[in-house]
Specification:
The complex is a heterodimer.
Chain A: H1 3-15, H2 18-56, E1 60-65, H3 86-95, E2 99-114, E3 117-126, H4 130-133, E4 138-141, E5 155-158, H5 160-167, E6 176-179, E7 182-190, E8 195-196, E9 199-200, E10 204-208, H6 209-215, E11 223-228, H7 234-248, E12 255-259, H8 260-303, H9 305-313, H10 318-354, H11 364-391, H12 394-399
Chain B: E1 2-13, E2 16-28, E3 33-37, H1 44-51, E4 59-64, E5 67-68, H2 74-84, E6 85-88, H3 100-111, H4 115-128, H5 144-156, E7 162-166, H6 174-189, E8 193-197, H7 201-206, E9 209-214, E10 217-222
Helix pairs in contact in B: 3-4, 3-5, 4-5, 5-6
The chains are: A alpha+beta, B alpha/beta.
Chain lengths: 401, 223
């Protein structure tokens, strides 16, 4: 018996039960489409994060107060870490030639108001260098004035959302904004930026860092962003920063310095795991679809008992009967897989158009394994029905009609 | 050509054993025309199944063309059915979704013949049974007599030596039945060994030999 004859026979019997065939096809199609769509989402999220980090720049160090480490026993001396201060930030630029610039950052939530309108928002304290380090842009007016880190001033730059919500159509430049009990003059409006590293950069107010510390009554900075001159120097610069802090903090390493790369790679790993997990969940639906294929094939075998008996009487061998039914199951599931592939890609494409920021493309490994799995599911779940068909006793099979 | 010696077939039905065939001896020469008759449960169908290599004797020997076939493997039995034996059934047993021609082609599909060769031979065979114009009809579009003639074309397409017919006219009106019987007898006249199982005494009398079965035993044989 020729390969084509097996397929022709299988296709013929599938055509005979259109509704049943279509429903079973749908089962596999949904499974494959789910694998492709979900992994596309995971992969999209991973690429989105990568792009975000690339936008911020890859030669960034982040200094956090306090040491994050795993240790057995608690240290006997030195409980709370020392503050990370503006002087510390300035020392970094002064003493390490590898550091190009720093942006000390203070952070707080406060009600921000203009006349009768008020809004709870994030208030960032920083220096003019923040603009370059975070690759931000000013839409109107200007950014914070370069008056020295220690000096502040009652001026602020607002994000687009703040402008829209508080000032509506008014020109905010030169107007007075309330932050808590403090009054600030608006000197600039940021350009549209959107979400950046998990923070809505449109819904912020930026004030001089010294003022920020005072407004929120803090002594320690939230963190320091350190821009290193070149990407190659990043590990050396990291050692410099730690050395400078140890010197200034009496030999104690009480800050955490993380590199952009390490953050990125751990997020990357996390999202790859997530993608695998999503793919695995979707693969379960493929397995369920396989059970559907098996069910349909078992029904087909019992429905065609007398036909199988006839084929045996005409001289078909067990192997030929089994192969014909296996071909039918494989055809069913791989056709479903092909449909699912098309639907999955179309879905991922549509997702990409709706959320352009999310580059949702299914990873090749997921596409290949979804297709292989769908065909495999047909073969695996087709074995039992095929065996049952091939083992039918021709006499008994012919007897039924 | 056919030589049965002490063929017994025992079925287990629940706790009891039923002897469908009980030590049957039978010789059929090439080109012979044999009718098997007997009441229900006399073992006619069991004998037909054993002769057709669909079933094996529990004991005794079955030689077909000098070869012991009762103990062949499943695949070898399938091969014997494919090349040496043709079946015609009371209920035709055509595959309803296949055209008349495709039904006739089925045995050649199992034999692995090329599609062009299959089509040519199937058309010729349909011509022989007078159905040239019906090649592309499906069984539901054919009359009972036409269906049985398609089945006959299919049974003989591989050039078998033995044709087994199980109540071939049992489901046909008189006219169609006569046509089918005449076709069968014409093929027999050209050298095909024909064995017919029937309830119909008229059909039984037409055969050259008549084998009467009761309780799995031969009660008479008219030669």
């Amino acid at each position: 018996m020729r390969a084509f004859d097996f397929l022709y026979y299988a296709a013929g019997s599938l055509r005979g039960h259109r509704l049943r065939t279509v429903l079973t096809l749908l089962g596999t199609a949904v499974g494959v489409a789910a694998v492709i769509l979900l992994t596309a989402l995971g992969e999209g999220a991973r690429r989105y994060v990568r792009n975000e980090f690339a936008a911020v720049g890859s030669n960034l160090l982040i200094v956090l107060p306090g040491k994050i480490e795993t240790s057995g026993a608690a240290p006997i001396f030195g409980g709370t870490p020392r503050d990370v201060t503006l002087a510390d930030a300035e020392a970094l630029v002064r003493r390490s030639p590898r550091v190009r610039r720093v942006a000390p950052i203070s952070l707080g939530q406060a009600p921000v108001g203009y006349r009768e309108r008020e809004r709870q928002t994030t208030v960032i304290g920083s220096t003019p260098d923040l603009l370059a380090i975070r690759r931000l842009a000013v839409g109107a007016g200007r950014f914070l004035p370069d008056v020295g880190t220690e000096r502040g001033g009652p001026v602020c730059v607002i994000g687009r959302t703040i402008q829209r919500e508080l000032f509506r159509t008014e020109n905010p430049l030169g107007k007075t904004l309330h932050i808590g009990d403090w009054r600030f003059r608006v000197i600039g409006v940021m350009a549209d930026k959107g979400e950046s590293l998990g923070m809505d950069m449109d819904d912020v107010v930026i004030i001089p860092v010294a003022t920020g510390l005072r407004v929120f009554n803090r002594t320690s900075l939230f963190r320091i962003l350190v821009e290193v001159r070149t990407h190659e120097q990043i590990q050396d610069a990291r050692r410099d920063v730690i050395a400078i802090f140890m010197q200034r903090h009496e030999g104690e390493e009480d800050v955490t310095v993380i590199t952009q790369d390490s953050v990125l790679s751990s997020l990357d790993k996390l999202l790859i795991t997530l993608t695998f997990a999503l793919g695995g969940i979707a693969a379960v639906s493929l397995a369920v679809a396989g059970l559907g294929v098996m069910n349909v094939m078992l029904v087909a075998v019992s429905e065609r008992t007398s036909e199988i008996g006839l084929l045996k009487a005409l001289g078909a061998t067990r192997g030929q009967i089994g192969t014909a039914f296996l071909a039918e199951a494989a055809l069913l599931s791989s056709a479903g897989g092909a449909i699912g592939l098309a639907v999955g890609y179309a879905g991922a494409g549509a997702l990409g158009r709706i959320y352009p920021a999310l580059p949702a493309t299914p990873p090749p490994w997921a596409v290949v394994s979804a297709v292989v799995l769908s065909a495999g599911v047909g073969l695996i779940f087709g074995v039992v029905p095929a065996l049952r068909a091939s083992r039918l006793d021709p006499v008994a099979a012919l007897g039924r009609r | 050509m056919i030589e049965l010696q002490g063929v017994t077939r025992v079925f287990n039905v629940g706790d009891t054993q039923v002897r469908a065939l009980d030590g049957l001896d039978l010789k059929v020469d090439p080109g012979d025309y044999l009718a098997i008759m007997g009441p229900s449960g006399s073992g006619k169908s069991t004998l037909l199944n054993i002769l057709g290599c669909l079933d094996r004797p529990s004991s005794g020997t079955y030689r077909l063309d000098g070869r012991e076939v009762g103990t062949l493997s499943d695949n070898d039995m399938a091969d014997v059915r494919l090349h040496k034996i043709g079946f015609v059934f009371q209920f035709f047993h055509l595959v309803p979704r296949l055209t008349a021609q495709a039904n006739v082609e089925l045995p050649m599909v199992f034999a692995g013949l090329a599609p062009s060769e299959r089509a040519k031979r199937a058309r010729e065979a349909l011509g022989t049974v007078g159905l040239s114009g019906r090649a592309n009809h499906r069984p539901p579009q054919l009359s009972g007599g036409e269906r049985q003639r398609v089945a006959l074309a299919r049974a003989t397409i591989m050039g078998p030596a033995l044709l087994l017919a199980d109540e071939p006219t049992g489901n046909l009106d008189r006219a169609s039945g006569r046509e089918v019987v005449e076709l069968l007898e014409r093929m027999n006249a050209r050298g095909l060994t024909l064995i017919v199982v029937t309830h119909d005494p008229e059909l039984g009398q037409r055969a050259r030999r008549l084998l009467r079965l009761v309780d799995g035993r031969q009660t008479n044989e008219s030669v």
